[in-house]
Amino acid sequence: MREKILKELNRIEREEKVKILYAVESGSRAWGFASKDSDYDVRFIYIHPIKWYLSVDQRRDVIEFPITDKLDISGWDIRKTLELFRKSNPSLLEWLSSPIIYLHKSSVVESLRELSTDYFSVKSTIYHYLNMAKENYHKYLVDNQIEIKKYFYVLRSLLACQWIEKNQSIAPMEFEKLLAAELAKQSLNDEIENLLFRKRSGEKLAIEGRVDIINDFIEERLKYYQEYVKGIKDISPIDYDRLNKLFRTTLEEVWR
After folding, report:
1. Domain check: are 159 and 177 in the same one?
2. Which pLDDT score is estimated for 237?
3. Contact 23, 95 (CB under 8 A)
4. Does one domain contain both 39 and 105?
5. Most Cβ neighbours (<10 Å): which of 51, 113, 165, 239?
6. DSSP-based three-state secondary structure for 136
7. pLDDT in tens, 207-224
């Protein structure tokens, strides 16, 4: 599949007349709880030729394709990427720390990693993960019979909140790193590890009875972070100077 992904990225470069700077896995395969039939969620950062940016009109800054053959692939233009980085966009921060990298052809990624501490916002990232957890929990996990695999999406978001609270830093993508660092109750850990084993082994996790110990943990954490996040002081507004310089440097590096 990796070869197929690289061929697809090469095709995108040719047809869209761009250079792809960085491409990674961003979904369940990077999180560490993929099953055999999980999609490949490929995300990339790309750059246009210099003249493309010298335009009065507002141009499309994403490249997206329909999901085909388990391949979900899309990307952001470098200027959009830098704007979202300034806002401490959690999805982008996850891309930068993905354990599965398909392409890495520019120094801009290392520069962003080095700058990430200065631009990281505890408040906005916890809000992001908290809202994801709330939405998925109320949508999928409140009835007596639930879609078991949805536990992972809620738990990962809440464990990311706990990581950020404890370390004041970007949470790792891998579910097991979050799980190992944050859970205190062995009985809760055992239940989650059991579900993780079942999912990875290829078992179809369909509709089953809710797991009370996991639901109790989720409900307690949702209440806690809804209050916790209100008291966080956000970072001061950051100017564009360093990112403007990085944008120009990247254009020169790629197209010189």
Report:
1. yes
2. 61
3. no
4. yes
5. 165
6. helix
7. 899 999 999 999 999 999
Q: What is the pLDDT of residues 24-54, one digit of tens each?
A: 999 999 999 888 788 999 999 999 999 999 9
pTM over 0.90: yes
Residue type, 47: I
CATH of the domain at 85: 3.30.460
CA distance linking residue 9 with residue 4, whole number of Å: 9
Beta strands 101-104 and 71-77 are: unpaired
Instruction: For residue 118, give the nearest of 88, 91, 92 by alpha carbon.
Output: 88
- The neighbour count for residue 11, using CB atoms within 10 Å, is 10
For the cut 90, the answer to whether the pLDDT of residue 240 exceeds it is no
CA–CA separation, 59 and 243 (whole Å): 20
For residue range 184-211, what is the model confidence (pLDDT) as tens digits? Answer: 678 898 999 998 888 888 777 778 999 9
Give the range of the structural domain holding residue 104, as residue numbers without chain letter: 2-120+236-255
Mark whether 36 and 136 lie in a shared domain: no
Measured between alpha carbons, how far is 153 from 144 in angstroms, rounded to an integer? 18
Amino acid at 213: I
Write the DSSP symbol of residue 143.
S
Distance CA 188, CA 127 (A): 24
Residues 65 and 90 in one domain: yes
Q: Which are the contacts of 41, defined by CB distance < 8 A and separation ≥ 6?
A: 25, 26, 27, 28, 29, 30, 72
Do 177 and 89 belong to one domain?
no
- Per the CB < 8 A criterion, the answer to whether 70 and 40 are in contact is yes
Number of domains within the chain: 2
Q: Give DSSP secondary structure letters for 79-106.
A: HHHHHHHHTT-HHHHHHHT-S-EEEE--
The CA-based dihedral angle spanning residues 105, 173, 168, 44, taken in that order and rounded to the nearest 10 degrees: 30
